Amino acid sequence: xxxxxxMAIEKGMRRALVISACxxxxxxxxxxxxxxxxxxxxxxxxxxxxxxxxxAGADFRAFHAxxxxxxxxxxxxxxDDARMTSFQRELFGESTGLIAWRYPPPTxxxxxxxxxxxxxxxxxLWVALGLLALGVAAFSVSRRxxxxxxxxxxxxxxxxxxxxxxxxFLAALALAGLGHLKRxxxxxxxxxxxxxCKPHLALLVPVALLxxxxxxxxxxxxxxVLALCLGSLALLGPEPWTLFVRDLLVxxxxxxxxxxxxxxxxxxxxxxxxxxxAGASAAWVVHLGLALVGxxxxxxxxxxxxxTDGQRALLFVxxxxxxxxxxxxxxxxxxxxxxxxxxxERRGRLTPLVALALVVMASxxxxxxxxxxxxxxxxxxxxxxxxxxxxxxDASWRAAAHPRSAQI
Length: 408
Description:
single chain, 408 residues, 0% strand, disordered N terminus
């Protein structure tokens, strides 16, 4: 009896820590969701502004303006900063700054129907569709209503609703794609291929699928990319593609040299290196070096026959965040994909450290600005490295696959 007491106490403490982490996440979910619902409630009454008088939706200004031009038969105007500025100021006042459109023509094609609606109606519909897509993806993967509810109420989702609503769709596609690779590889490939609506988040899709020998998923991804590209060419014409590539080359480079005020919202290795005093060339060397490590780790992990869905999803997202030099805080909502899959695999045998990691992944976007402001540095690339290292550890995932040795 006495010899077993320390083990019983240890297991009890570990269980208490796991429960505490879950309660903490639940409490944060309720508070954040309630706060943001209050903030955006005027939209349901037809207003284009939130409770503080700011334009609701932030990033959605660009989506609404671009959809308006596309619906009016002028898709080229979405890539014209002068016309976008004029349209936004006409709606929201002369002091309104430009939120530019930097997405590829397939994304413009998909949002085109929103152009028939006014700003408030279009924003409400866009958010509702995004939440529906994410909820369906979460339930289809987890088969649990409680998990679906936590996903929809998670802090990063609340943050994305206010800042960059397309993140809801990207998280849904990543979760469905990475979560259905074994059960429905063709469907998974179609979802992962649709990530090209935000191209930098889809860069490692072909690498991962080929490394994991996911041939049917790879075909599905290629079919989706081809369908989106040909559809946009047929509906919008070739000119938007020319303008998109031009903007990518011109404004993409400017983002690294002229947008220092926004660096707090760009959690990439390049930005961290620049903040530490490295010149542009040195920062690129550091960034590319870590990106190559991330890609190599992803390939090794996806090639491993015993890799779990959660492990592969974690490696994919962490390697992607290390690879891209330009990503926004609302892009971090894709961390929900590995979080849900890891929970699905380890439910009932979570360790305190894993529970904490899931809480962090479900709320990292909302913490980003506060953490960077407090420290003065964009330290989140260190988290991507930690997540990549965790995904690469064979032992922890083997323990998850054999619950007798990992149960608490």
